[in-house]
Design brief:
Number of helices: 3
Largest sheet: none
Helix content: 55-70%
Order of helices and strands: HHH
Length: 87
């Protein structure tokens, strides 16, 4: 096993760990922004899918309910008491 001798900021007067940490943080910024953008796009995609599903259900409801032939066909009703009902 090799021993590594590390000279910290005491000898040089600089905090090397802090400098490296800050540099790595700066390097990760573009990746972090891409991850945020990806998350927003995934949320948008999910919202569009949900809206399309709801619109499809509305379309089915309208065309299966309102525009069916039976909705517009003539109906005949007979009443036993013709005085009570008039159409």
């Amino acid at each position: 096993m090799a021993n590594t001798l590390r000279i910290s900021g005491l000898a040089s007067g600089m905090d090397i760990d802090k400098i490296v940490s800050d540099l790595m943080k700066a390097e990760r910024m573009p990746l972090d922004k891409l991850k945020q953008k990806k998350q927003l796009l995934e949320w948008q995609r999910d919202d569009y899918r949900e809206m399309n599903k709801l619109l499809s259900e509305l379309d089915t409801s309208i065309f299966d309910g309102i525009y069916r032939q039976a909705t517009f066909t003539k109906q005949t009703v007979i009443s036993s008491n013709e005085v009570a009902v008039s159409v």
